[in-house]
Design goal:
With 97 residues, the chain is α+β, with helices and mostly antiparallel strands. The protein has helices spanning 19-33, 43-60, and strands spanning 10-13, 35-40, 65-78, 81-94.
């Protein structure tokens, strides 16, 4: 399957999501679409999400890409239960280094 033709998707991060795999998905979306959206609910998942963003920056640094993050709280429904999630929009910027 050619993933470069797929549309950008919201990446949902769980407490047990491996940060390195999430980072690879973020880096891939940045390379293909110059943007990635990641969402997490809960302290452990949110920590893993930000760890993945930091790791993704390491993955794309040698390509002259610098990541810019815009975090926000959003209200969402899970199984009829309303909860607050952290969503981060990550965009690429050309590095001045």
């Amino acid at each position: 399957m050619n993933t470069r033709n797929l549309e950008r998707r919201l990446l949902l991060v769980a407490a047990d999501s491996p940060p390195a795999l999430v980072a690879g998905a973020i880096a891939g979306q940045i390379r293909d679409h110059q943007q990635s959206e990641i969402q997490a609910i809960g302290m452990v998942a949110t920590y893993g999400m930000f760890k993945a963003v930091i790791t993704a920056q390491k993955f794309v640094k040698n390509e002259g890409i610098r990541l810019v993050c815009m975090p926000e709280f959003i209200d969402t429904d899970i199984d009829g239960q309303r909860c607050t999630a952290m969503r981060v929009t990550v965009q690429s910027a050309i590095s001045a280094d």
